[in-house]
């Protein structure tokens, strides 16, 4: 059996199309009240995330201080050993 070529695969993919019965309808325009509700939900979500991850900032500070101390130690050691 002969091996199929890529060009034949490309042609078969091009022939596929969206069925005629399915047409895309535009999404309904958001009403002003919907926009307010969406903004309120976004604020609540941001506040909730800030509460959940407030400990992360302290951890990041600690990691940065340790990384800086280690880098300083490596620089000092490079002068002492080298």
What descriptive keywords fit this protein?
single chain, 82 residues, mainly alpha, 3 helices, flat
Q: Helix count?
A: 3
List segments where confidence is low: pLDDT < 50 over at least 5 consecutive residues. Answer: none
Mean pLDDT: 77
Report the strand count: 0
N-end to C-end Cα span: 68 Å
Structural class, by secondary structure, is mainly alpha
Helix content: over 70%
Which outline best applies?
Answer: flat
Radius of gyration: 30 Å
Counting copies of identical and different chains, the oligomeric state is: single chain
How much of the sequence lies in strands comes to under 5%
The topology string of helices and strands comes to HHH
Q: Which sheet architecture does the biggest sheet show?
A: none
Describe this structure in words.
This protein is an all-alpha fold. The chain has a domain at 55-82. The protein has helices at residues 6-15, 32-52, 54-81. The model has no long low-confidence stretch (mean pLDDT 77).
């Amino acid at each position: 059996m002969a091996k199929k070529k890529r060009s034949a695969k490309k042609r078969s993919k091009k022939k596929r199309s969206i069925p005629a019965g399915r047409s895309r309808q535009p999404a309904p325009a958001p009403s002003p009240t919907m926009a307010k509700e969406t903004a309120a939900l976004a604020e609540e979500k941001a506040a909730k995330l800030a509460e959940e991850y407030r400990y992360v900032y302290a951890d990041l500070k600690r990691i940065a201080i340790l990384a800086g101390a280690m880098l300083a130690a490596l620089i000092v050691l490079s002068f002492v050993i080298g």
